[in-house]
Amino acid sequence: MRTRLKICCIGSIDEARLAIMAGADAVGLVGAMPSGDGMISDERIAAIARIVPPPVASILLTSERRAETIADHVRRTRPAAVQIVHEIEPGESARLAMLIPHVRRIQVVHVEGPDALERRTAYMPHVDAFLLDSGRPGAAIPELGGTGRVHDWDVSAAFVKASTLPVFLAGGLDAGNAGAAIAHVRPFGLDLCSGLRSEGHLDPVKLDAFVKAVAEADRRTS
């Protein structure tokens, strides 16, 4: 199975086109967050989402925590999918599925320890995919992605094995460790931001190296 590629922290139409030409299956558009890089305005998110051609997916990253406010964020920006970066209450996840049933919903689970596995069953009936990341939502200033840190891939591998839904892996990925991540975790897709950027911009050299590393890893594991 080919590993899907989600290129996150897209900041402009030009960056979106660069990622798509390189072979991205999805581009991540980061809304307001309590910390981290790559945030852009809702107006820019909407403008980028409009030019992303199917079957490539435009994905809004939202830090909203209630179903109504997440749905409103989606309506303002009109992405193909929404990535919920807080671990919201499962009841809110169920409510969101009713509010925006035709928008794919990706729930982030932050892998801070083995207890991440316990959150799979609560969300599974209400979402379309998971994304495992290295944030610290309980920190004084919550970290909800873009940390550049690798988490415990043993936990992620167990999560993937137990999940009936697609699972993306994020956190500290780059061309140097993409192959190891695919071999160890066997995720549906990889998601990365900081590993592909130089001086705040999407780096075409790093992007090309990453795409080639993933393709080579897929050949070895097929």
Describe how the helices and strands are arranged.
Blueprint: E1 4-7, H1 13-22, E2 26-30, H2 42-51, E3 57-62, H3 67-77, E4 81-84, H4 90-99, E5 104-110, H5 120-123, E6 129-133, H6 153-162, E7 167-170, H7 178-185, E8 189-192, E9 197-198, E10 201-202, H8 204-221
Parallel strand pairs: 1-2, 1-8, 2-3, 3-4, 4-5, 5-6, 6-7, 7-8
Antiparallel strand pairs: 9-10
Helix pairs in contact: 3-4, 7-8
Tell me what you see in this structure:
- The structure is a single chain.
- By secondary structure, the protein is an alpha/beta fold.
- It has a single domain, classed as Aldolase class I (TIM Barrel, Alpha-Beta Barrel).
- Helices cover 36% and strands 19% of the residues.
- It has eight helices and ten strands.
- An eight-stranded parallel beta barrel has the order 1-2-3-4-5-6-7-8, surrounded by five helices.
- Strand 7 (167-170), helix 7 and strand 8 form a beta-alpha-beta unit.
- Helix 3 packs across helix 4 and helix 7 (178-185) runs parallel beside helix 8.
- The longest helix has 18 residues, at 204-221.
- It starts with a strand and ends with a helix.
